[in-house]
Amino acid sequence: MTQITVSWDGGQAVYELNHSPAAQSLLAQLPLTTQVEDYSTNEKIFYPEEGLDTSDTPLAQAGAGTLAYYEPWGDVVFFYGDYSENPGLFELGQAVSGGDLISQMSGTITIETAE
Question: How far does CA 12 lie from the centroid of its chain?
């Protein structure tokens, strides 16, 4: 499985991506430096430059630590709390380290393939 790192001032999280077309679409856009935003009380989001291919991509169902793509708005979501399933929310992967730091993520983030 491919892993990516998400780094920000004061923290880092590592995600293991699934083999879905959406995860591969995100991977093709890396490395990426962008602004992350707070949304609701359980997630951080950013908007990739290009939309992700959600064909044959599983719906997100795992809870905190999930990396997902919300197709209706075109944003990538870092969940740090539980969430409700949604037919437009697709799973890209899961945090394998730093998941407890996601709630502190802010400002500019850099996403790249883990070495």
Answer: 13
Six token digits for residue 74? 């075109």
Does this model's pTM top 0.90? yes
Q: Which residue matches tokens 């979501």?
A: 77
**Distance in angstroms (rounded) separating the CA atoms of residues 21 and 83:** 23
The residue type found at 100 is: D
Instruction: Collect the ranges in the chain with pLDDT lower than 50.
Output: none
CA-based torsion, 106, 14, 102, 29: positive or negative: positive
* Encoded tokens for 65: 């630590």
Distances in Å between the Cα of 41 and the Cα atoms of 28, 58, 84 are: 29, 24, 13
Give Cα separations from 54 to 15, 80, 112 (angstroms).
19, 22, 21
